[in-house]
Amino acid sequence: MSTVTAMPVGPGGTRYKEVKEAMLAALTAQEWKGGEVIPSEKKLAERFGVSIGTLRKAIDELCAENILIRHQGLGTFVAQHRRDRHFFRFFRVARRDGDQTYPVVTLVNFKRAKCTPAVAARLNIDDGTRLFVFTNALALHEKVVVVDTVMLPETKFPGLTESMLRSRSNTLYNFYQDAFGINVTGTDERLRVAYASELESKLLEVDVGAPVLEVERVAYSLNQKPVEYRLTRINTEHYEYIANTTKASENA
Amino acid sequence: MSTVTAMPVGPGGTRYKEVKEAMLAALTAQEWKGGEVIPSEKKLAERFGVSIGTLRKAIDELCAENILIRHQGLGTFVAQHRRDRHFFRFFRVARRDGDQTYPVVTLVNFKRAKCTPAVAARLNIDDGTRLFVFTNALALHEKVVVVDTVMLPETKFPGLTESMLRSRSNTLYNFYQDAFGINVTGTDERLRVAYASELESKLLEVDVGAPVLEVERVAYSLNQKPVEYRLTRINTEHYEYIANTTKASENA
DNA sequence: AAGTGGTCTAGACCACTAC
DNA sequence: TAGTGGTCTAGACCACTTA
To answer: Where in this chain does the record put each HTH gntR-type domain (chains A, B) (predicted)?
Structure first.
């Protein structure tokens, strides 16, 4: 093969990283939406002016981050949050005997409020910014064991209403993706012991002030911007939170 | 270039997976030890009878799993557990303000015991198997906030003594690696609220029965076999456990 | 200067899916 | 059969490290 000098690489880094960033930009701009197929590798290679191998390396990384999904013979798709796939990547509560089931979610309340300084810092927005705030009770094996309080900046979820939340047919993150084009790709969580509030004690059927496991979550979207703040409280009498550092990414 | 029919691929799967398994076997057999450099890509490609590209794909995955580390211009090395690198991958406690520091470890006691059924199930060994059991108090910012109780099967750690644990100069997992050739590559953890025992209450300076965060960990070695059982109890008054699902694997 | 890994290419062939 | 992604190859050139 002849010696072809590669196209010059921009100052940012390497060709495939540039391609990856360009694809992330296209995804953020909703050029391709959740569940849709993206153009073939051949076409994308032409579009970005790189060889198939380089294009594939960019897609490799996006797949490793669960942003794209490849299907041999079918094409490459924008990953979609679904109840039946990757749900337990974000819902990490299981019964102590290991049994994992889908929670039955009940919306307990829905209101608007202004952002407190602590939450503002986590969401990287101004103190006092208007938020949607709602609480879900999650039942496992017919009993409520998790209470979620979710806070969303109004500007990122324009037009969100209580009835939209009640009538959604899939997961919350699927709803964010379909209705607002917000693709949650990762979360940071901090866990600690906390004490049940009056509302929580009723829902969880524990005494007021009983110790519960608190999970403070910030969810990030495609462009690494925080989009959701969530405070989860779990009755760990019969259930527990599962974490791992196993990098169980690509196991055939 | 001429059309070269690739070597037949074994029934197990693909060429690069075969190469990866062969390298894992070599690592498990301690052909290359922690911190050592492995042969160059060119030599390994010759040894396994594949092209550089295929060999690289195998190494790519081993690097993604933190088993190998590449250094451009230097070579590829067997990842070594070190206090100054990847330490916080396994030590996930930080102060509530986010400050992460290295714990000061004190060995509180060391004994031998027989395995209980619950631990036997986690470690996938027989009930009653002999174990080393020891407890560490971990201080952060000059105060004990974490108490670890570690259980190791005697057969996997032959000759382990209390003084070896006291005189180790690096992390526990570094010690496993150097002294016993056991390379911890991942952990499964389950978190729940528990209540301080007498010993824990003294060390953590809380009341007996005070709620603490319990982390039950099983650590796995290169060949995915469980090698360590650990019960961690944390006083989360000023500290917390950090988890994330961000897949922050390869960020330049 | 020599050796290492890092990137990129151009193309072949295979496996899977849909029509 | 056509089109997709999956694997593999053989090699060029670049960037980094050590001496």
So the answer is: 13-81
